[in-house]
Amino acid sequence: MENQTSHLEENQQDDITINNKFVLKGLTLDELKNYFSKNGEPRFRGEQIFNWMYNHLVTDFFDMANVPKVLRTKLKDSCEIMTLQHVDTQISSFNGTKKYIFETVDKYKIESVLIPEEDRVTLCISTQVGCPLDCKFCATGLMGYRKNLSAGEIFDQYVLAAKDFGKDNITNIVFMGMGEPLLNYNNSVKALEIFAQELTTGISKKKITVSTAGIAPKIRELADKNLNVKLALSLHSCFDDIRSSIMPINDKYPLHQIIDAVKYYARRTRTRITFEYIMLEGINDRNEDIEELLKVCKEFPSKINIIPFNSLKHMNPTGIAAQIRPTNKDRIDEFVQRLRENNITVMIRNTQGDDIAAACGQLAILLND
Ligand code: SAH
């Protein structure tokens, strides 16, 4: 297998073509305006195409009613809109959670998960094929890294899910699927910029969340971008030695660096940070873990999302990954109560879609799929 650590540096992607056609999906509003003005068209064409692609979610240039027919034909010959194909859907028999399998043009499969709840419908999208971080509790980590998704491939997960479930029905977008968004920084930010644009009507910035394992310098960079989307940090332990043993990236960016970065993010964007915390028996569910969590949470506006550990059995894990066990329900309740007694906002995330391996951390396409 190729060296996975080389992918821990974020890398840039050049202009993308499909079958020699230039891919427009993934270009931001400014990029689209520049593209059309470079090609001898008025800049407002960029705004029109933006609106068709990202608001009306059209997949064919011929549906772009206010674009002159000659230009539509020209675009059809030289440009491409869709970057993904919908190949399969699995539906959880418990709660209707849907796992979509999409395929990129270069034949990689990726997964997105749609989670209908009482008061919201969340679409969880992927930013990479696989993941280089190797977190010991995560199926995507066990699968290894394949490639970064382009901004178009990130956005098209929403397009295809919206075609299936209805655009207006999707209320929240979370970058919590396969991959580490901040290691595919440029493409993730471009996709966020597109989601957060006023012209892409429907989803407010408050309903868009990026989840990261803690790439400290990129958290600061994202704060400075002024996108003001919400940030979730996969914390999972407040002790460096324990965190490093389950999340190797902690050796590169230890806790004090990450906490400083998220503090900066909270201040700069005036948003509340969410700490994600998977409950792992004997690893991070002890009384001293509660004490440390309290100290971290009291430093700045934050809340904790407690996540029951979802099994990785479908991946046949070995080593540490095979030894990880979920904390039992009584202890989770006790842990949560102690935090709440100290005025910390704590949510317990329901396990969604375990029966179709669509729950948090279960996303992985096996090599022989
Ligand atoms: N790379 C990003 C986003 C993907 S993971 C990140 O690390 O945040 C999305 C969330 O699922 C994270 O909080 C992650 O820690 C959690 N997760 C991973 N594996 C899990 C598992 N087996 N059970 C429950 N949650 C898991």
Description:
With 369 residues, the protein is of the alpha/beta class. It folds into two domains: 17-80, DNA polymerase, domain 1; 83-356, TIM Barrel, CATH 3.20.20. The chain is built from 13 helices and 15 strands. The protein has helices spanning 29-38, 44-55, 69-78, 139-143, 151-165, 185-196, 216-224, 240-246, 249-252, 255-269, 287-298, 320-323, 329-341; strands at 17-18, 21-23, 79-80, 84-91, 98-104, 109-116, 121-124, 128-130, 145-148, 172-175, 208-212, 230-234, 273-279, 302-308, 346-348. The radius of gyration is 21 Å and the shape is globular. Bound molecules: S-adenosyl-L-homocysteine (SAH). The site of S-adenosyl-L-homocysteine (SAH) has 16 residues, from strand 11 and strand 13.
Give a quick precis of the structure.
With 369 residues, this protein is α/β, with parallel strands linked by helices.
N→C terminal distance = 18 Å
Strands in their spatial order, largest beta sheet: 4-5-6-7-10-11-12-13-14-15
Indicate the proportion of strand residues.
15-25%
Radius of gyration: 21 Å
User: What's the CATH topology name of the largest domain?
Assistant: TIM Barrel
Fraction of helical residues: 25-40%
Number of DSSP strand runs? 15
Low-confidence stretches: none
Biggest sheet: strands, sense, closure? Answer: 10 strands, mixed
Overall geometry comes to globular
Question: What sequence of helices (H) and strands (E) makes up the elements?
Answer: EEHHHEEEEEEHEHEHEHEHHHEHEHHE
